[in-house]
């Protein structure tokens, strides 16, 4: 690991000033950044430690009912916060399906949002990677690319964003609060990450020095609390990144859908909101045929970026299953294997 | 540049001069504080061998910078027993053959102590397996590990239940 200057600011303005310098990076728990630094993938000259900043570790209810979550709240604490899990159960389920208990105890809200892709060539500094080194090429195009993107990719980069947390957040119109050199602003989580285009190294819409201070979930998104699920297909049952994931949320009155939300993970360089597919659900009585039509619409633009055509049909089927389980109702207690699409007992319904 | 940090390690106050900011909690414990019970498996957050408690919460010591944890209270495997009296989780691992080669065991035991403290799994084996999935065991002693955690959790939860009754 390259050496660096360690800075521990006491206030947010000090942090922003220290991190606005070229070569500086914020350090939260470090569960992604230190990993990347050990591999020589990230080589910051200065680490600005945000973990001692005051007042960023709170969960508070704002007038009007929105929940405001400080950037330093740990993933496990958020998932187990009663008010939060009751209002936004699919987000809690997504959090608890990510990484391991140890990592969730450390990982912060902002760090999770800004974690880097798990593309193996991005991690291997002997490989060509446009995201790590603009103009170098992309070894994934002709390499191991089963796990890569099927939506929104470009010739320059076919990587996916690995966060589980982000997927229900974009479905529920969550917003991040950012403080930077130009003051405070708000960005929807959906607009935080960028698709690769011809500049995959330009990963998100943050400017140098920009500090995420909080995440906000709108009060309105709690209308889906009774019918919301996050499902994640992994190559092993636990402690693995998503091959494909889906967040589904429905607001049903009588037998009719009043509003629906749908987002996919593991399919693109950003969490993927499927708005046109959502619209097909409004005003209908949900059934299997409708769910299949929604799934077709959600993946209408998908195309393989390599050896990964299977992900498109997998994603469709996962959408159908996520919608089916959401319609059946949010379980009173999260299943033992959060977000698993598979039943733990042979023959049983998957956590119905 | 050097940094001085203060930690409570297994109940003992330690002031440490760090001449290099790159030192992880794992390397600090093993190389500088003479506490090699915490193991280094992958060094990248993937195996759980380095699990310790920081302020009562289990984390991976290999992905934690020591300098960032100034003021923390740390418990390692060396801090669990009272003299010759084993911690209930340690005793349960022996009773249920929760290990074979033993390399992953300090991490498994610290993770189990953390899991029981979190109180989310109860005595449901499926929830215990899921809660312990951050600890890999190359010898695949998983069946014994789950039994050990179940028994330890019952023993540790019993006084709580009596209190509640
Ligand atoms: C073995 C393993 C398995 C994993 N499995 C999963 C999984 O299944 N699902 C999943 O979603 N994740 C998974 N993860 C990733 C994990 O969720 C992230 O490492 C974690 O969320 C990052 O949070 P952190 O606080 O440690 O961030 P850090 O590593 O400290 O930071 C990450 C990035 O965010 C930036 N940053 C941090 N805070 C701020 C801020 N306030 N403002 C601006 N920038 C900031 C940093 O500069 C850095 O670029 C896994 C990780 C490991 C090691
Ligand atoms: S897919 Fe993207 S991240 Fe992976 S090697 Fe290509 S450019 Fe790099
Ligand atoms: S050594 Fe820390 S998780 Fe493997
Ligand atoms: S006992 Fe050998 S690795 Fe677990």
From TrEMBL, chain A:
Gene Ontology MF terms in the entry: FAD binding; oxidoreductase activity
Gene3D superfamilies in the record: 3.30.465.10, CO dehydrogenase flavoprotein, C-terminal domain, Uridine Diphospho-n-acetylenolpyruvylglucosamine Reductase, domain 2
InterPro entries registered for this protein in UniProt: CO_DH_flav_C, CO_DH_flav_C_dom_sf, Diverse_Substr_Oxidored, FAD-bd_PCMH, FAD-bd_PCMH-like_sf, FAD-bd_PCMH_sub1, FAD-bd_PCMH_sub2, Mopterin_DH_FAD-bd
FAD-binding PCMH-type domain ranges (all copies): 1-222
Superkingdom of the organism of origin: Bacteria
Key words of the record: FAD, Flavoprotein
Family matches, as PROSITE patterns: FAD_PCMH
Protein name: FAD-binding molybdopterin dehydrogenase
Source organism of the structure: Chelatococcus reniformis
UniProtKB/TrEMBL annotation, chain B:
Keywords from the UniProt entry: 2Fe-2S, Iron, Iron-sulfur, Metal-binding, Oxidoreductase
InterPro entries from the UniProt entry: 2Fe-2S-bd (IPR002888), 2Fe-2S-bd_dom_sf (IPR036884), 2Fe-2S_ferredoxin-like_sf (IPR036010), 2Fe-2S_ferredoxin-type (IPR001041), 2Fe2S_fd_BS (IPR006058), Aldehyde_Oxdr_Iron-Sulfur (IPR052914), Beta-grasp_dom_sf (IPR012675)
Annotated 2Fe-2S ferredoxin-type domain residues: 3-80
UniProt-recorded Gene Ontology molecular function terms: 2 iron, 2 sulfur cluster binding; metal ion binding; oxidoreductase activity, acting on the aldehyde or oxo group of donors
Keyword Iron among record annotations: yes
Pfam families in alphabetical order: Fer2, Fer2_2
Domain of life: Bacteria
Protein name: (2Fe-2S)-binding protein
Species this chain originates from: Chelatococcus reniformis
Organism ancestry: Bacteria, Pseudomonadati, Pseudomonadota, Alphaproteobacteria, Hyphomicrobiales
